[in-house]
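Design a sequence for this backbone.
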C-alpha cells in the first residue's frame, strides 16, 4: 500500500539530552480503583515519584500530556502537576495534545527546551482518566428547545469516531487487516503473546521497577490548598497493573468482534486510568549532579498518514527517524509500538519486516492498557529500562495517532 513520504516528517535530533529517571502509577482498569481520581492527581503522584532522586527546584519547565477534560479544573492540569510535585511556582508549565502520541511528544519538547538553553531539567508528565470521560453536550448553552433532541453523548465512545472519514479508530484497524490480509487468528495469537509477556514481566518484577504504589493520600504544598487522591472500592493500595492476567488463545477466540472484523475487546488496547512522568536533563546537569541517566534521547519524528489507516503511523515515523540518524532497522535492538489494536501492530510488523523477538518484549497496551496521554511516556520509560536490563544499545518507541499521524523516538542506552 502507498505511504506518505517520510521526508515530510517533523524531525528533531539532540546531541546531549538524557532520560534521567521516570515512574508511573499502576494502570488500572477503568471504573475500578482509580474511577473517581482526577488525572491531575495521577500526574502529581507519578511526577513526585519521578522526582525522588533530584531536587524539584532544579526543574526549569513542566510539560504535560492529557486528552479528555475529565475534571472541572482540567485547564490547570499541567500547572497543578508541577506545583504539587514541588516545582517552584515561578516555573511555567504547558499542555500538549498529540492524542496517543502526546507522551512521546512531551519528551521531545523537553529535549528541545534543553537544547535551546531554556532549562537544564524538564519534568514531562502525562495522565489520563478514561473512567471520568464525561457524558457531554455541546449544543445546550442557550437552553433546550421544545420538541428538539436533548444531545447528551458518551464522550469516551464518541471520541473514537473520526468524522473526516466517518469511521472509528477500530474501523481503521479493520482497514489495515484487510489490506494486509491479517486474520482474526493472527490477531488473537498476537494478543495472547502480549498478555503472556506482560504476565512474565509482572511476575519477574520488571514492571514493578517503574511503578509507584498508590494509596489514598493528600498532597500538601505550603501556600496551596491540599489536594486529595482517594481510591474507590475496598483496595487500600494499588501497586501493579490490573489488566494483566493469564489469557489463553481460546479465551480470546471466544470474544465477539467489536467492529465487524478481526478486532475485539480482547485483542485491542485495554481501557485504563493512569499517570506517568519522566525527567529529561541536559548533559551539563547530569555531570554537575553526578547522576546516572537511563538513556540518551537521540531523535524523534512525527508525521501525518491517511486517517483511514492511521495505525500505519509507526511505519512512516520509524522510517523517518532511521533516515535522519543513518541507522537501519537491524541496528535497533528493542522496539516498542503502542498496541492500540492488534491488527494495527501486525500491519506495521509486516510493512517494516520487524523481528518480533525485539518487539514489545514485556507486553504492550493490549495487556497493560492505554491511558492516552500517559502511554507514550510508558513506552519510552519501559524501553529505556529494558535496554539497561538487557545491555543493548538502541531502542525505538512509537505510536499511531488518531486522525492519521505517527510518532517515533530513538533512544540509546547510557
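Sequence:
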Amino acid at each position: 500500500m502507498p505511504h506518505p513520504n517520510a521526508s515530510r516528517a517533523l524531525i528533531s535530533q539532540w546531541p546531549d539530552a538524557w532520560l534521567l529517571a521516570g515512574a508511573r502509577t499502576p494502570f488500572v482498569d477503568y471504573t475500578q480503583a482509580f474511577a473517581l481520581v482526577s488525572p491531575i492527581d495521577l500526574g502529581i503522584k507519578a511526577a513526585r515519584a519521578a522526582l525522588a532522586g533530584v531536587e524539584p527546584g532544579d526543574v526549569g519547565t513542566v510539560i504535560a500530556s492529557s486528552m479528555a477534560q475529565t475534571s472541572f479544573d482540567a485547564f490547570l492540569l499541567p500547572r497543578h502537576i508541577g506545583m504539587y510535585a514541588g516545582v517552584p511556582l515561578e516555573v511555567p508549565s504547558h499542555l500538549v495534545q498529540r492524542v496517543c502520541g502526546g507522551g512521546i511528544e512531551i519528551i521531545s519538547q523537553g529535549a528541545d527546551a534543553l537544547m535551546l538553553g531554556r532549562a537544564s531539567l524538564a519534568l514531562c508528565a502525562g495522565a489520563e482518566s478514561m473512567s471520568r470521560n464525561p457524558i457531554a453536550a455541546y449544543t445546550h448553552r442557550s437552553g433546550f428547545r421544545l420538541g428538539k433532541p436533548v444531545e447528551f453523548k458518551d464522550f469516551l465512545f464518541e471520541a473514537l469516531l473520526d468524522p473526516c472519514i466517518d469511521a472509528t479508530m477500530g474501523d481503521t484497524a479493520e482497514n489495515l487487516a484487510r489490506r494486509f490480509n491479517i486474520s482474526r487468528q493472527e490477531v488473537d495469537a498476537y494478543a495472547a503473546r502480549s498478555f503472556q509477556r506482560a504476565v512474565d514481566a509482572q511476575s519477574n518484577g520488571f514492571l514493578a521497577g517503574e511503578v509507584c504504589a498508590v494509596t489514598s493520600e493528600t498532597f500538601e504544598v505550603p501556600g496551596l490548598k491540599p489536594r486529595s487522591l482517594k481510591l474507590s472500592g475496598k483496595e487500600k493500595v494499588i501497586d501493579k497493573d490490573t489488566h494483566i492476567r493469564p489469557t489463553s488463545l481460546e479465551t480470546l477466540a471466544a470474544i465477539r468482534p467489536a467492529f465487524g472484523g478481526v478486532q475485539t475487546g480482547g485483542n485491542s488496547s485495554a481501557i485504563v486510568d493512569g499517570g506517568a512522568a519522566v525527567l529529561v536533563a541536559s548533559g551539563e546537569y547530569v555531570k554537575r549532579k553526578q547522576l546516572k541517566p537511563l538513556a540518551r534521547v537521540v531523535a524523534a519524528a512525527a508525521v501525518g498518514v491517511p486517517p483511514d489507516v492511521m495505525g500505519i503511523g509507526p511505519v512512516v515515523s520509524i522510517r523517518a527517524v532511521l533516515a535522519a540518524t543513518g541507522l537501519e532497522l537491524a541496528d535497533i535492538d528493542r522496539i516498542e509500538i503502542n498496541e492500540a489494536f492488534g491488527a494495527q501492530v501486525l500491519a506495521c510488523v509486516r510493512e517494516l519486516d520487524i523481528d518480533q523477538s525485539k518487539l514489545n518484549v514485556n507486553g504492550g497496551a493490549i495487556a497493560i492498557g492505554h491511558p492516552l496521554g500517559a502511554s507514550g511516556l510508558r513506552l519510552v520509560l519501559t524501553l529505556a529500562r529494558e535496554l539497561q536490563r538487557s545491555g543493548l544499545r538502541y531502542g525505538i518507541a512509537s505510536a499511531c495517532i488518531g486522525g492519521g499521524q505517527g510518532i517515533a523516538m530513538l533512544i540509546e542506552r547510557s
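The domain at 15-131+209-239+268-289 is CATH 3.40.47.10 (Peroxisomal Thiolase; Chain A, domain 1).
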